[in-house]
Amino acid sequence: MVLAPLSEMNGRYPVFVAAGIVYVVFQAVCAVVTNLAGMLVARFLVGAGASVFSTMVGGVIADMWDAKGRNMPMAVFSGSVLAGTGLGPLVGAVMTERMGREAEEEGGGGKWKWIFWHQVVMCGVMMVAVVVFFRESRGSVLLSRKAGALNRWYEALEQEGYFGVWEVEEGEGGNIGVGEQQDGNGSADEEKQSGFNNTTQQRTITNLRRIRWIVKEDEERASLSKMIGTSISRPFHLLFTEPVVFFFSLWVAFAWGILYLTFGSIPHVYQTVYGWSLEKSGYIFVSLIIAAVLATAIGVWQESLLRHPKWAGPDADSETSLDNNNSSNSNNNSDEISDSCCSSNTKTSPSPSQPPTSTSTPTHLSLSDRIWRLLRERFPVTSPESRLYFTCLTSTFLPIGLFIFGFTSRPDTHWIAPAIGMVFATMGILSVYLAVFNYFADTYHKYASSALAAQSFCRNVLGGAFPLVTGPLFRRLGEARAGAVLGGIAAGLTVVPWVLVFWGGRIRARSPFASQLGS
User: Fold this and answer.
1) 3-137+224-313+368-514 falls under which CATH superfamily?
2) Pick from 218, 213, 197, 446: which is nearest to 338 by CA?
3) For 205-233, how does the pLDDT look when each residue is reduced to its tens digit (9 = 90+)?
């Protein structure tokens, strides 16, 4: 919330680089610190640096892709996040157990801290790649740089005596040319070719105007303190005044909490129920990686299905393009340096050789054509709710997976059954995360970053709290009851996308933010 305004003013690149340096440096501090207080401070700063990447990547995707093409990169990013969530505990469990055994054999300790050194090396390499290959994506920052380059070019020309624009009035002797230089007596003595329009007519010069390029967003941008205040207050305002933001944030926060609950629930179940070692139980986190790959493929496939010509209809591309342009204009009008252009509205009549297209509905349609027509009429792909059509189904994977995990975590059940439950649960988590991001981006447009910040706050609060309650929850309730409680809550929250699919238009019409952007 604090760093987002800095990225809008100074660009994504410097914020990414600074946050990455903080992350790598304090990972190294974690490896050498010897007391609890120092470890807590270092871990806090590590988390602060790492949070920038997960928070700002949505803005980078929005910078580079419009609404029509945003789903695939977002699905790949979301899948990578979940795959990394499974890979981290897997590597950590193996390193902790093997290095712990080596430390016991050698009569020493502290080798487990190589977990931190491993992250320092890996993340250090990644930061070098970011510094070398990442390019600025923020549109207003790129335009500001372009405007600055143009202004420096004009200043260099002016030092040589070339000027861009004269404010003139008619004189008795005629006109003095634009781009000409005038001596102290007021006569035109030299014409310089500067690339500007020149004329041989004489004019009386009343005022010299120099060309300077500015970016509208730079001129209208508030102070840094005000931007930080707005970036902190507006997400909470949306959270408590917008029902869509509130319930979506609650939904995705619970899903994210379940993801972090797996850090404790998987080792607990496989060590206490099946008697596995820490290293062996860590291999179960492969199920999260498998789920991430499958869910990413489903996320990409569902977008291609929404573009099916029989569902989207012949005019969907033009309508989507128009919606994207309108959305882009509402977001980026302040980021543009625009030139004047001419346009004309023309109407074309059908060719005499071609009969006019009939708009009547065919009386005889096959079953598949009727299904496609029903989808077009009841579930249009041009509405923001189209992001939720498949989520209504795939989000049920989360409660299904939790029920499977809870009720199959028994010594007389094969160990793969709870792992299958985690596959389903993780696929449901990714579908929820992807749907919330895309729906907020399509609905709130220029306020999307605030809406996403609201859900990010809720998501990370529960993500930090759930690992703390994992042990007490499973010890007091048992695996079956704990899975039933969590699965029941997840099942209740699956109603959220259904409500928006059927009544989303009415809800958005009552929203002061969404209705303002829609109009």
Assistant:
1) MFS general substrate transporter like domains (1.20.1250.20)
2) 213
3) 556 666 778 777 767 777 777 777 777 88
